[in-house]
Amino acid sequence: MENLNETILAVVLDVVREKSPEIEAVRPDQMLVEDLGLRSLDLARIIAKLEMKLDVDPFAELVAVTSIRTPGDLSAAYAKCFSTDEEPAPEASKGTGPICAKHPSGRSAANRTRPPRAGLASQRELRQKARGEQSQ
Amino acid sequence: MKTKEESMTAERQVAIVSGGSRGLGRAIVADLLRRDMIVAAFSRSKTPFIEQRLAADPRVESFHWASIDGSDPQALAGFARDVLRRYGRIDALVNNMATLGDGLLTMMRDADIHAQVSMNLESAIFLTRACLKGMLPQGSGSIVNISSVNALRGQTGVSVYSATKAALIGLTKSLAVEVGPAGIRINCVAPGYFDSDMTGGFTDDQRARIARRTPLRRLGTVEDVANLVWFLLSPEAAFITAQVIAVDGGFVG
Predict the structure, then answer these.
(1) Yes or no, beta carbons of A45 and B182 under 8 Å apart
(2) Could you tell me if the ipTM is greater than 0.90?
(3) Which residues contact A106 (CB under 8 A, 6 or more apart)?
(4) Tell me: the pLDDT tens digits for B150-160?
(5) Which structural domains are found in chain A, ordered by start?
(6) Contacting residues of B for A44, CB less than 8 Å apart
């Protein structure tokens, strides 16, 4: 698990340093938007990089990407993919894919009990865009 | 100073072409291979062209092909991942795969409508998403969606086909805004009437009528379209994104 957290922090730092080279380290509790200056496309890049490294995509079905606000949230999301203490997923891996083997229907306990928070991806951005389009 | 896209030319670029076994897709595959790109293509079944290309490259160094059901999102994502694992990158995507259900809308079977929406539009969306997973970490990439002049002007008998091809233009324009900041370009090519399997059913009279209404006085060729696809994928088009370019000889309808 430590390696997973380190991998995630390293990838986040890579992307953060493209914009803010002066930043030398990121902490799991820092806010991706407010503290680290990332935008939704940066998060998409982080997730794509992690999918290439880890070969899993927890956001395909398991976790709402809007719930991700910190590197710690990312770690928790990816930890779900590698967790072994839940029921096996029926036919989860009929493809070769990196879709998390867990909860292929997306009905994880976390998703049931925790509604998506307004996260990086921008429910706010999307709402603003929608308002903009309607006013045209 | 070289741009990121120009500096990539030192490394062989990798392109995915959907539906690369026949017609325009075949011409695009052949053209990109001729220009020393690594090409990964898929289609439902092998054609003599695919067999010939595979035989010419038994170590799969330049040409990779798989039999894929283009309407299966998981299969499309798996194909893109295989290409990434095999070659380490995806630089270009050509969403070419399409099916044409010809007929008046009121006479069209449900299955034919679904097949066109699935094959021409949904598959392009899913494959694009899968390929972006490779392009985003690279910070570069170029996507070309093959639309149609029927997306730009009306034509009887192809309403569903036209709807799917017009939707690709919407996909192009919004996605270009979305991924442009990550160095990824996306454009649309809108071919007019050109010699292919899809126009093989035209009579000589129909072909002559099309040529008369075309200022350049002929039907197009698949090479006319493939040349533009290459240009848009290449560094020569490094500042072109969100565009729709017709290759129709100036067809006036």
Answers:
(1) yes
(2) no
(3) A61, A62
(4) 999 888 999 99
(5) 2-135 (1.10.1200.10)
(6) 132, 136, 182
